Amino acid sequence: MGANATSVGVLGCGSMGGAIARGLVQSKTLDPSRLVLFDPDSSCTEDLAELGAQIMSSAEELAKSAWDVLVLAVKPQILPDVVAPIAGHLAGRLVVSIAAGVNLHTLEGLLPSARCVRVMPNLPIQVRSGATAIAPGPLATGEDVSLVQELFHALGSAQVMREDQLDAEGAVVSCGPAYVALFIDALTRAGVRAGLPAAVCRDMVEATVLGVAQTLLETGEHPRSYLERVTSPGGTTAAGLYQMEPLVMDAAYAAVDAALARTQELAGGK
């Protein structure tokens, strides 16, 4: 079954669930009539209802409805309580969870006989430029994995990997938008300190980050090669990098380690 002929249910239409639903429609991967949604906060589904998505009145109604893939887009802390009353309706069906830290073993315990797939998307799926890691459970078929990858590829990069790699991907890529936003803010603040107007500086920094990302994506050039290409020997960029590089590398390692530790805490219910 191709993505265009697929019906997708989304349980939880907040930041991530809503972005997935909207992205599938905006990319023309899915006709809105093939979306079946529920969120206890009706304001999360208002615009999707206007597009033509089917809005269910409860999680149970959604679970019983005719979808091919169900995306569980609820917070990991409440996932067990959300799925317990509907688990019987999900037996044998394809269920995709985006809950950080909830591993496949736990999912399979909550949803016996469901064909579970874990995915870890990041927020740039809102503009269909995100990154999603996909790890299938033992009951998921090759066709299931291909379908999930096709759906999330419409929202950006989508890569299949082992589950033991998924938490690391989350600590790097799912948290990555916040790291990049922090870097943009820090560089903007440094520019203001050096005498640039804040709005002007932020606009130019954002344009620079976007330009570098587009160049690397379009050319396939390695970031280190690009860095060396724009750094003149003995120049201002070399002087700036001499100060920045060790701090950025240490911060990146520490951030990923901290995010991994928190992921493990969430998996333990803390």
Structure write-up:
The model has no long low-confidence stretch (mean pLDDT 93). Helix 7 (163-174) packs across helix 11. The chain has helices spanning 15-26, 46-51, 59-64, 79-83, 104-110, 142-153, 163-174, 176-193, 198-219, 223-229, 236-267, and strands at 8-11, 35-38, 54-55, 69-72, 94-97, 115-120, 130-136, 156-160. It contains 11 helices and 8 strands. The protein has 2 domains: 3-163, Rossmann fold (3-Layer(aba) Sandwich); 176-267, ProC C-terminal domain-like fold, CATH 1.10.3730.10. An 8-stranded mixed beta sheet has the order 3-2-1-4-5-6-7-8, sandwiched between helices. The chain is elongated. 34% of the residues are buried. The chain is an alpha/beta fold.
Topology as H/E string?
A: EHEHEHEHEHEEHEHHHHH
Strand order of the largest sheet: 3-2-1-4-5-6-7-8
Number of helices: 11
Overall pLDDT score:
93
**Gap between N and C termini, in Å?**
39 Å
Question: What characteristics describe this protein?
Answer:
270 residues, alpha/beta, Rossmann fold, ProC C-terminal domain-like fold
Helix and strand topology:
Layout: E1 8-11, H1 15-26, E2 35-38, H2 46-51, E3 54-55, H3 59-64, E4 69-72, H4 79-83, E5 94-97, H5 104-110, E6 115-120, E7 130-136, H6 142-153, E8 156-160, H7 163-174, H8 176-193, H9 198-219, H10 223-229, H11 236-267
Parallel strand pairs: 1-2, 1-4, 2-3, 4-5, 5-6, 7-8
Antiparallel strand pairs: 6-7
